[in-house]
């Protein structure tokens, strides 16, 4: 830790609270309440597997919303590190000042222009080609929406605690009906049926690599799409247009790096995990990949945890991925040449641009 730790945590949490005051309720009521329940769990350090007391959560939400009303129009505060005050969005400079402290800082603008901030313990650091990977453990400050992974320039950040929370939410939802599918296969591969909490821990640790591969894919997609892409994304006012653009880039990133990397592994567990996250517009845009995965599962090639994925079991998926690289690179360039209203209209006709 460092001198001034309390002031640093306070500043970062203040900025998290301001961002939440402005944006936390920009989602459906169900999503909002689920997010707030898990935020309560984090703030009160409650273990997974124990439901937070409903009445206590309700009172806590009311108090939090009352505070938000007071600070929604407040400016973000500077981040104090080693006697210097940094702009809250200057994540690279803040992390440079934090070197040797065992801390990692994250800041950026996410979906629908919502700012995100966090401060956590640096669990490990490594070099991945030209990128620097920071894996965060315990978190000291965060907002309601805990994003498991993100890239900040050439720095890749994975938040293990946020990943664990996301996995537990998904597992809880699946456990109600226990439907067949990729999520079931992934959970059972890690032993969720006989050791739920241990399975989530093992899964969170193992799937850090999958998140890293996606972030490396984001960097690769950025090189393909060029410098105009982030400016295009930042200018969107239409949520539907932004969702389509993000889905196209995500699919390109996964076809460039994530899926080739997963298909080169010895077991299919991580592939099941990845497909359990493959939803929404990303999935609608890429039915060819869905069919390739379904065909392999139906043949039994991906049904048994621990069985290597080789030969024909991987060939159809690799063919789909190769086609996706070409398709989504071209589609991304097409979106760059379109205005926002045209992109929004196109988002209503996904079948016409799907692969």
Can you describe what's shown?
- The chain is α+β, with helices and mostly antiparallel strands.
- It folds into two domains: 5-163, no CATH class; 178-352, no CATH class.
- The chain contains 15 helices and seven strands.
- It has helices spanning 5-23, 29-43, 54-71, 91-97, 160-177, 182-189, 196-206, 208-225, 228-234, 239-263, 269-276, 280-284, 287-299, 312-336, 340-347, and strands spanning 79-81, 84-86, 103-109, 115-128, 131-142, 149-152, 155-159.
- It has a five-stranded mixed β-sheet with strand order 3-4-5-7-6.
- A hairpin with a 2-residue loop joins β1 (79-81) and β2 (84-86).
- The chain is globular, with a radius of gyration of 21 Å.
- The chain starts with a helix and ends in an 8-residue tail after the last helix.
Would you kindly provide a brief summary of this structure?
The chain is an alpha+beta fold. Helices cover 58% and strands 14% of the residues. Strand 1 and strand 2 form a beta hairpin.
């Amino acid at each position: 830790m460092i001198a001034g730790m309390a002031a640093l945590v306070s500043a970062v949490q203040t900025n998290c609270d301001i961002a939440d005051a402005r944006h936390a309720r920009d989602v459906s009521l169900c999503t909002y309440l689920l997010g707030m329940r898990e935020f309560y769990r984090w703030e009160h350090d409650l273990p997974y597997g124990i439901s937070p007391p409903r009445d206590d959560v309700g009172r806590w939400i009311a108090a939090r919303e009352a505070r938000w009303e007071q600070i929604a129009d407040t400016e973000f505060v500077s981040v104090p590190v080693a006697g210097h005050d940094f702009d809250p969005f200057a994540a690279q400079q803040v992390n440079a000042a934090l070197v040797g402290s065992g801390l990692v800082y994250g800041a950026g603008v996410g979906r629908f222009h919502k700012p995100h901030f966090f401060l956590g313990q640096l669990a490990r650091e490594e070099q991945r080609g030209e990128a620097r990977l920071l894996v965060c453990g315990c978190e000291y400050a965060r907002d309601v929406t805990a994003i498991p992974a993100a890239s900040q320039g050439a720095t890749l950040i994975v938040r293990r605690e946020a990943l664990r929370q996301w996995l537990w939410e998904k597992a809880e939802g699946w456990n109600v009906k226990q439907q067949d599918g990729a999520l079931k296969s992934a959970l059972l591969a890690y032993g969720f049926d006989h050791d739920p909490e241990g399975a989530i821990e093992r899964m969170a640790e193992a799937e850090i690599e999958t998140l890293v591969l996606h972030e490396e894919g984001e960097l690769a997609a950025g090189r393909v799409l060029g410098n105009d892409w982030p400016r295009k994304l930042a200018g969107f006012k239409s949520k539907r247009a932004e969702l389509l653009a993000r889905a196209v880039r995500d699919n390109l990133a996964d076809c460039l790096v994530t899926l080739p990397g997963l298909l080169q592994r010895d077991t299919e567990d991580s592939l099941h995990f990845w497909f359990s996250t493959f939803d929404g517009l990303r999935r609608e845009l890429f039915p060819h990949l869905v069919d390739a995965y379904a065909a392999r599962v139906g043949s039994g090639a991906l049904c048994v945890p621990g069985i290597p994925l080789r030969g024909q079991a991987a060939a159809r998926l690799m063919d789909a991925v190769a086609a996706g690289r070409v398709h989504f690179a071209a589609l991304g360039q097409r979106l760059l040449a379109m205005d926002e209203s045209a992109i929004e209209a196109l988002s209503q006709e996904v079948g016409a641009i799907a692969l």
